[in-house]
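Final paragraph of the annual report: two paired records, presented back to back.
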Amino acid sequence: MREGMIPAVLGTVVTASGAALLGSKYKLAATGIVGFGLAHIVLGAIDLIEHR
């Protein structure tokens, strides 16, 4: 498996779960979860591009 694929996929899952929570009363926590997910996606993408 290519390096960076796991953080990118994990970030996608975390972002989707945070987006699902945005409609609930925990809007601030959901925004933080989405942010962490997006950070994982970006870092995974950097690894994927760097280790071609």
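The closing record of the year follows.
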Amino acid sequence: MGLFADLWRETQTLVHQEAQLAKAELSQKVSQVASGAGEIAAGGAVLFAGFIVLLFAAVGALELMLDTEHSVWLSPLIVGLVVMIIGYVLLSRGRKQITAEKLTPERTMQSLQRDVRLAKEHAT
């Protein structure tokens, strides 16, 4: 009877520890998602700003089609492209942080697999 009581206590302790590990790991993953979402939002805002600058460049270029001075529209065009590249980089970084592989609770899964393996070994 003492063996079953020990097994029950150990099982309860193990389940509690696994739940704590899962909770801690999921909390970490949630903050990672929040960070990625923030970068996506920032990247979207920067891309939008770049798009507006490019629109100003297009307007300037259209106005100057009759004029020979191209420097008036070339500057906003270059600035707009640079801003859009920065926005693209931010979006890419944010997307990489929200991939399914990065969100899986790896340590919890490894620990559960180890526990199952140990339980099978002790059962036989």
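The CA atoms of residues 52 and 80 lie 8 Å apart. This concludes the annual technical report; the extension proposal builds directly on these records.
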